[in-house]
Amino acid sequence: MFVPNVHDFMVVSFVFFVAGNVKGLLGMGLPTVAMGLLGLMMPVAEGAALLVLPSLITNLWQMARGDHLRALARRLWPMMAGVCAGAWMGSGWMLAAAGDAMLWLGLCLAAYALAGLAGLHLPQPSPRQEAWVSTVVGGLTGLLTAVTGVFVLPAVPYLQALGLKKDEMAQALGLSFTVSTLALAVTLTTSRHLNADSATQSLLLLLPALMGMWLGQRLRDELSQESFRAWFMWGLLALGAGLVWHDY
Fold first, then answer.
1. What distance separates the 2 farthest-apart alpha carbons in the chain?
2. Which residues lie below 8 Å from residue 1, measured CB to CB, with a gap of 6+?
3. Are 191 and 91 spatial neighbours (Cβ–Cβ below 8 Å)?
4. Distance between CA 70 and CA 141 in Å, rounded?
5. How far apart are CA 72 and CA 54, in angstroms?
6. Distances (CA, A) of 161 to 26, 164, 200
7. Does a structural domain hold residue 1?
8. pLDDT digits (tens, 9 = 90+) for 106-144
9. Which of 5, 97, 149, 162 has the fewest Cβ atoms within 10 angstroms?
10. In whole angstroms, what is the distance from residue 212 CA to residue 14 CA?
11. What's the gap between Cα 141 and its chain centre?
């Protein structure tokens, strides 16, 4: 069992409540926050196994809301294929680089936060370039997903560069995160980190994640998203730096 006692399980449940709250506010961030905090308490692969069901269910919910899913699937299928291929290629890295996974997680969180704080945006690819660029971006996202359990880079900056409308963006993120979660689940099952015990605990952690997501959605209209996003990025930067420091 990854969470051996009631006290630890309550702490982990609170982590998923906070992560769900962030996702409710921003439409993303559950795996990023959860893995960043869990990385301080347990090996990355074990934290990723707990993440699977809360991430999958919340992202299926997000993906299903809207009328753009079919068009997005047609447009983004090269990226989704790349995610699956990258996660498959990176599955061996999770075991070979297990000692460095926390370092990579910290570096990814810090890099994502710095890019967000600096307002960096990727250029939009031309229609002729989009298919192969999507495949490369998906492959890199899959590799990082397999090693760190976090699938925001480079998927989120790339989707932001496509010029999608707000509702399209929310569904595109849900689609990307759903495929990434499924690819991660296959990788963890193959490496035997996802088993009956971890799946049971992951199912129990779905409730605090959904409660946090519901509260975040309620708070969305009360708070300035731009202000919250800035604090969120600063928090990720501090969390990433802490993980790197902890690994050293």
1. 54
2. 197, 198, 201
3. yes
4. 22
5. 23
6. 17, 8, 38
7. no
8. 888 888 889 888 887 789 999 999 999 999 999 999 998
9. 5
10. 9
11. 10
